[in-house]
Amino acid sequence: MMKSKILLTSCILGVFLLLHSCKDYLDRTSGQVVSEEDVFGTFENFQGFIEPMYSLIIDYNSHALTTSMNIGGEIIAAQGWSSGDRARLGGYEGWIGGGNTPILQSNFWSTEKNKIGNNDSGIWVDSWRGIRIANLALARLDQLTDATQEEKDLIAGQAHFFRGWFHFELGRYYGGMPYVDQYLLPADDLQLPRLTWHEMAERIVADLDMAADLLPEDWNQTAVGAQFGGGNAGRITRGAALGFKAKTLLYAGSPLMNRFSNGPTDFDQQYMERAAEAAWEVIQIANRGVYSLTPFNEYNLMFARNDGLIPWSKETIFQKVRPEKGEGEHLNKHGRLMTPGRLGGNNICETVNQLYVDRFEMRDGSIYRTEYDQDNARRWDDRDPRFRNAIYVDRDVAGILPITTLEFFTGGMDDNSSIITPYVCHKFWPVGVNNRDQAWSEYRYVTPHLRLAEIYLIYAEAVNEASGATGRAEGANLTAVDAVNIVRARAGMPPVTAAATGYESFRELIRNERWVELCFEGQWFSDIRRWNVAHLPEYKPYVDLVFDRNWTSFTRQVVAERVFENPRHYWMPIPRSQTQLYLEFGQNPGW
Questions:
Q1: Distance CA 545, CA 409 (A)
Q2: Rounded distance between C-alpha atoms, residue 221 and residue 55, angstroms
Q3: Do the beta carbons of residue 430 and residue 311 sit within 8 Å?
Q4: Each residue of 513-535: pLDDT tens digit?
Q5: Mean pLDDT, residues 340-360 taken together
Q6: Is the terminal CB of the chain with fewer CB neighbours within 10 Å at N or C?
C-alpha cells in the first residue's frame, strides 16, 4: 500500500475530534488543538484522515477468528462456538451479538466488542464507521485548498467508492439499508427508512460511477502514485469501482432481490444487461494491460505467500492489504482455522464438505460421479487442477518433511475428533507453514474481494441471464461461453459449449464454475442466497468420506445438516437494539 506522507498526530487527533466525543477543552494544552484546516487543508493530511477506511475492510478468512468458508456449507468444524456450528444450528444471533445475545466468538458480523477482546467489531459496525468517514470527507472537500486537481479527485474518488462499497457490504448480508449520503449531526433527522434492495443498489451504483470518473486505472501512472515507486497495491482504482458496480447490479438482478416482484427464481434482465456492460468495461481495462489472469503455476500466490511479500498480482482488483507479517495475526488465525492439530493447529480445523469436493470436474470436463469414490485413479486424481490447489487430501505432503504427510484414513495420525472430513484447505496454506518445518516467519495470506477471474464470471452470468450463453454485452466481442472458457483455460481445463454437457443448463455450469474458481473466498454463502436456493435440501448436508488405510473401502455419511429456513435465514438478523430505535428501521423477516 502507498506509504502516504501523513502527519500522523494531526490525523489521529482529527479523527478523534471529529468522529468521537472529546475531552473537555480545558484539559488540552495548546499543542493538542487541531483545526479542521490542519486536517483537511492539504492532500497529505486529508489522505491520512480517510486512510482508516482501508483498515475497516473485512478480510473474510482472517477477521478475528472467523472464516467465511463455513457459513454456506463449504467446510465444517467440530467446535460449538465456530461460525460453522452457527450455520448448522441456524443461530445467527450468536454471530452478531447485541442486546441480550452473547457473541459466541470474535467474527466478522460482530456488532460490539467481543468477549475475549481480540477485535472490536465486524461488518455491521465497521461499515457504518466507513460510511461516516466517507461522508465527512465529502462534506469537507471544499477545505482541501493546498492540492492539485488530481489530488482532489483522488480524495473524492476514494470517498465515493467507500461510501458505495460499505453500503454494498451491509446490503449483501442484511438486505436493503438506509442510504446515508451526508454527514449526520445530532440535530438532523436520523430516522432514515430502510430502502428496497433495488433502491439501495441505484444509490451504490451512482457513488461507484462517480468514483470511476475520478479514480485512475493505475495509481502508478499518477503524479501522486509515482512518488512511491510502484508501492500502490491496495489503492482503490477505476477498475475496482466498475467491478463493484457490476457486482452490485448482478446482485440487484438476482432472484433473491426480485423474489417478490418477478418471482422466486427469476432474474431481472435489465439489471443483468447493466451488470454485463459494467463487467465488460473492466475487461476492456484488462485488455489494455492493467489486469491479467495470473499464470496457473503462480495461482496460489494470489492467496498466500511464505516470503514476506503481500499476496497480490495483476489479477487482483480489490482486497485488504495489511502491513503486518510473520508469526502474529496471520499464523494465529491460519492455525486456528486451517491446520490440523498435529501440525500446529488449535484443533479447530475446518474440513471440506464432500459435496463441495464433488463440484470439481474431472480433467476431461465431465462431472464427478459418486461411484468414482471407489476408483483410486479418479477419486482425487485426474481432476480439475484447481481441486488440488484448493484442497489437501489423504497422503498429500502438506509441508517439507515426510512427517507432514496427511493421514485422514481411519486410525491415521490426523483422524481425530477435530477432523470431521478427510479434506483441509490448501488454498491459503503454503508449504512449510507448520510446526514441523517451522518455515512460517514470513507467512502472509489474504482473501481477495475482487479479482479478474470473477469479473469474467460476473460477465458470463449476466450475459447468460440477459441474452443466453452465446449472447454478448452491448459493444462487446465476448460471449458468456467465451468468458467462462477464458477462466477454465488458465487452469488447463477443456472449453465448454452452450450445450453444457453434464449440467442441467449453462446457468448451472456457470454456478459450478464460480464454486470451483472462487472457492473459500467468501462468495458461496452470498451466491446461494442471492440465487434463492440456499433453503433447498441439496444445499444442506455436510458429508464425510470414511475409508481405510489401504483405500479398499469408501463410505459416505451425512455428519450434519445446515438449518436454513425460508425466508428467515436469507438475511442476517439486525441487532435488536437497533431495530427498536425507530419504527422505520425494521427487523429482517423471521428474526
A1: 9
A2: 24
A3: no
A4: 999 999 999 899 999 999 999 99
A5: 91
A6: C
What's the pLDDT band for 265 if we cut at 50, 70, 90? confident
User: How many Cβ atoms are within 10 Å of 142's Cβ, its own excluded?
Assistant: 9
| Residue-level pLDDT at 579 | 87
Helix (H) or strand (E) holding 46: helix 43-50
Instruction: Respond yes or no on whether the N-terminal peptide bond of residue 567 is cis (omega within 30° of 0).
Output: yes
Q: What are phi and psi of 558, to 5 degrees?
A: -80, 120
Q: Calculate the average pLDDT of the chain.
A: 87
SS (H, E, C) 389-440: HHEECCCCECCCCHHHECCCCCCCCCCCCCCCCCCEECCCCCCCCCCCCCCC
Question: Dihedral through CA 324, CA 327, CA 330, CA 335, nearest 10?
Answer: 180
For residue 75, give the H/E element and its range: strand 75-76
Residue 180 grid cell = 446515508
- Which residue(s) pair with 391 in the sheet? 425
CATH topology assigned to domain 238-321+446-521: 1.25.40
- Is there a contact between 237 and 8 (Cβ–Cβ < 8 Å)? no
pLDDT tens, residue by residue, 49-83:
999 999 999 888 877 665 656 678 898 888 765 55
Give the containing element (helix H, strand E) for 463.
helix 452-467
d(CA 164, CA 155): 15
